[in-house]
Amino acid sequence: MGDFGNIMISEKFMNYILETFRPRRKAFGKGELILEKNTAEDRLCLLVKGVAYLCIENENGGKQLLDYFTKGAVICHEMLPDIRGGHCFIQAKYPCTAAFLSDRELIGHMLKQNDEDLAQLCSAIFRSALSARNRHCHILQQKTIRGKLLAFLHDLRVRQGSTTVHIPMPYSDLADYLTIDRSSLMTELSKMHGDGLIEKKAREIHISCMSAADNGLPRT
After folding, report:
1. Distance between CA 72 and CA 55 in Å, rounded?
2. Which burial class, exposed, middle or buried, applies to 113 when counting CB atoms under 10 A from its CB (0-12, 13-18, 19+)?
3. Cβ contact 191:198 at 8 Å
4. pTM recorded for the entire structure
5. Cα(126)–Cα(124) distance, rounded to whole angstroms?
6. 94 neighbors 102 (Cβ within 8 angstroms)
7. How far is Cα 202 from Cα 177, in angstroms, rounded to an integer?
8. pLDDT tier at 131 (50, 70, 90 boundaries)?
9. pLDDT: which is higher, 39 or 49
10. Is the separation of the CB atoms in 11 and 53 below 8 Å?
11. Which phi and psi angles does 142 have, rounded to 5°?
């Protein structure tokens, strides 16, 4: 079924949703808005292709990356927090295709067909906003740059199901996500490589040792 803790679904189940509900699909170019807080779009959207960012832009035009989504992610309006003096939105980092779904239709089908897999997905969606925020908050609460990186890599390992993970964003954006500057991020990655914790090649990282990251980190 995929990793419901991260609201990711498998290719098989994604195809099942697309074939069963035949949702409206829409392509987005780089930087285009996919969801905003006050839009009339259906309340759910399935990311069929690409990478999308959840961002906040303050009244001065400054932007911060709060979360990111990859293929198979289910995105909902509830993920968009109310920010005083700011604007929250989800935009395409790279060209995306999204399928817009009706939450009422999903629930109606689940009840009518007694679809256990769909019931799990609906349950996961309803707790998704809190889950995503808790993961990011935990990463940011780590006291050191290394701690933040280890927590982030742990989360990626769970999401991608492998000890060799692909960083789904440029390192400049990862630095923004971790609230550190890019030079400090790259320096720490080099130190982690030298200490034998990781092997890094461009945006592919093989995690050699995660015991430190597993200590006290939340399971998703």
Report:
1. 19
2. exposed
3. no
4. 0.79
5. 5
6. no
7. 18
8. low
9. 49
10. no
11. -65, 140
16-21, Cβ contacts within 8 angstroms, sequence gap of 24 or more: 17/46, 17/99, 17/101, 18/46, 18/48, 18/99, 20/109, 21/101, 21/102, 21/105, 21/106, 21/109
Query: CB atoms < 10 A from the CB of 184, how many?
Result: 12
Contact 153, 207 (CB under 8 A): yes
Report CA-CA distances (Å) from 119 to 129, 166, 196. 17, 30, 43
Q: Is the confidence at residue 194, as pLDDT, over 60?
A: yes
Structure token pair of residue 3: 């990793």
Which pLDDT belongs to residue 42?
Answer: 56
The backbone region for 114, taken as left when phi is positive above 0, alpha when psi lies in -120 to 50, beta otherwise, is left
End-to-end CA distance of the chain: 15
H-helix or E-strand spanning residue 49: strand 44-49
CA distance 67 to 85: 19
Q: What is the DSSP letter of 8?
A: B
Residue 78: pLDDT above 90? no
